[in-house]
């Protein structure tokens, strides 16, 4: 009977604690591939609530100043001085008015603005326009150290960048079950990533897109409440067994 008890206790500890395999990233060997995923090379197309940084330069700075949204533009105040894509897919530029950019790439927006500016400049070939996203904003939630909304001033953000900037995955986070929820022009879509597998680097969804929601699900050990290590699990089980034995003895003595 004692052997059976210790056998059950041993199995409970093994099944309840978090293994090193569950906590190790990028396991396995990378596979050489000659094909580059088209999706990772396709330019991002603007969506509602994206914020654009737009800069215009020309030989006549006085005319250029007419098209400024006001204030110095930097990553800290881009919300106030940048150009936000409204719910109709438009940005509003002084003297040009509403300009629809929904579904356009940064390069296409630049060309569209240059075309509009030809109405105001005698030498349109001397106009230099910069149009790019004001950083990549996304949300990380679930089993991470610092969940919340993050904005990185980068042209490209990988799932590794996103997780690292959210305070890393906690010991009770499921690294093999990371979900990206993406509201694209085709509707809401969900993608699964396994960060314990080296093949994640070959995933079409390795790079985060603006307004993505990244969710790290918990391991089953969290709902059990048994702990992350063998010692924690052992302590929990001993505490439970002690409570059960004490209760049985108390009932017998009544």
Write a structural description.
This protein is an alpha+beta fold. 31% of the residues lie in helices and 25% in strands. It is built from 9 helices and 12 strands. A 5-stranded mixed β-sheet has the order 7-6-12-9-10. The chain has a 3-stranded antiparallel β-sheet with strand order 2-1-5. Helix 1 packs across helix 9. The longest helix has 24 residues, at 230-253. The protein is elongated and about 100 Å long. The relative contact order is 0.17. The mean pLDDT is 80.
Task: Name the features.
31% helix; single chain; five-stranded mixed β-sheet; elongated; 254 residues; 9 helices; alpha+beta; three-stranded antiparallel β-sheet
Low-confidence stretches: none
Spatial strand sequence of the major β-sheet: 7-6-12-9-10
Structural class by secondary-structure content? alpha+beta
Total beta strand runs: 12
What's the N-to-C terminus distance? 26 Å
What does the average pLDDT come to?
A: 80
Main beta sheet, described? 5 strands, mixed
Helix-strand sequence: HHHEHHEEEHEEEEHEEEEHH
Specify Rg, calculated over alpha carbons: 27 Å
Total DSSP helices: 9
Percentage of residues assigned to helices: 25-40%
Shape, per Cα inertia axes = elongated
Strand content: 25-35%
Present the secondary structure layout:
Elements: H1 2-16, H2 20-23, H3 38-41, E1 51-57, H4 61-65, H5 78-81, E2 83-84, E3 90-93, E4 97-100, H6 106-117, E5 128-133, E6 136-142, E7 148-152, E8 157-158, H7 159-165, E9 173-184, E10 187-193, E11 207-208, E12 213-218, H8 220-224, H9 230-253
Parallel strand pairs: 6-12
Antiparallel strand pairs: 1-2, 1-5, 3-4, 6-7, 8-11, 9-10, 9-12
Helix pairs in contact: 1-9
């Amino acid at each position: 009977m004692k052997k059976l008890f210790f056998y059950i206790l041993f199995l409970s500890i093994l099944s309840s604690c978090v293994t090193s395999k569950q906590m190790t990233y990028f396991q396995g060997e990378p596979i050489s591939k000659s094909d580059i995923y088209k999706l990772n090379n396709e330019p991002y197309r603007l969506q509602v609530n994206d914020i654009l940084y737009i800069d215009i330069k020309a030989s006549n700075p006085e005319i250029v100043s007419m098209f400024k949204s006001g204030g110095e533009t930097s990553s800290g105040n881009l919300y106030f001085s940048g150009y936000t894509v409204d719910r109709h897919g438009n940005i509003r530029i002084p003297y040009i008015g509403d300009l629809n950019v929904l579904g356009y790439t940064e390069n296409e927006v630049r060309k569209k603005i240059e075309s509009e500016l030809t109405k105001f400049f005698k030498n349109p070939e001397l106009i230099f326009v910069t149009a790019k996203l004001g950083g990549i904003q996304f949300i990380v939630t679930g089993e991470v150290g610092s969940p919340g909304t993050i904005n990185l001033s980068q042209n490209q953000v990988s799932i590794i960048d996103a997780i690292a900037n959210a305070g890393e995955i906690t010991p009770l986070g499921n690294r093999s079950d990371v979900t990206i929820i993406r509201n694209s022009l085709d509707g809401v879509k969900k993608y699964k990533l396994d960060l314990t597998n080296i093949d994640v680097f070959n995933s079409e969804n390795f790079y985060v897109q603006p307004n993505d929601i990244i969710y790290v699900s918990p391991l089953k050990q969290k709902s059990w409440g048994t702990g992350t290590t063998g010692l924690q699990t052992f302590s929990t089980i001993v505490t439970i067994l002690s409570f059960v034995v004490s209760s049985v003895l108390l009932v017998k003595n009544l």
